[in-house]
């Protein structure tokens, strides 16, 4: 993984970086190709409120060296 961001954009739409998750190249690696990790980031109140107001209009994009435009993408959802 080289980077990960939250972007504005509904399903099928792309947007610029809204929140960087602060992951540096090589910071997270999965020797078997899968795994999990936890990372804390700070967002502004406006950023948090925008995401909470309509999470489906944002997506998480994970970038890799082999797929710099994005290796995995997932729309955000509200979890109660």
Strands of the largest sheet, in order across it? 2-1-3-4
Distance between the termini: 29 Å
Structural class: alpha+beta
Report the radius of gyration as a whole number of Å.
13 Å
Characterize the structure shown.
With 80 residues, this protein is α+β, with helices and mostly antiparallel strands. It has a domain of 31 residues. The protein is 11% helix and 22% strand. It has 1 helix and 4 strands; from the N terminus they run E-E-H-E-E. The chain is globular, with a radius of gyration of 13 Å. It starts with a strand and ends in a 5-residue tail after the last strand. The mean pLDDT is 89.
Quick overview of this protein structure:
The protein has 80 residues and is of the alpha+beta class.
Task: Please give the structural blueprint.
Layout: E1 3-8, E2 19-20, H1 45-53, E3 58-63, E4 72-75
Antiparallel strand pairs: 1-2, 1-3, 3-4
């Amino acid at each position: 993984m080289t980077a990960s961001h939250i972007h504005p954009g509904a399903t099928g739409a792309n947007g610029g970086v809204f929140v960087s998750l602060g992951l540096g190249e090589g910071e997270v690696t999965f020797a078997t190709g899968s795994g999990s990790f936890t990372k804390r980031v700070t967002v502004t109140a406006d950023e948090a409120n925008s995401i909470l107001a309509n999470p489906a209009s944002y997506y998480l994009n994970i970038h890799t060296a082999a797929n710099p435009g994005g290796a995995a993408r997932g729309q955000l959802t509200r979890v109660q």
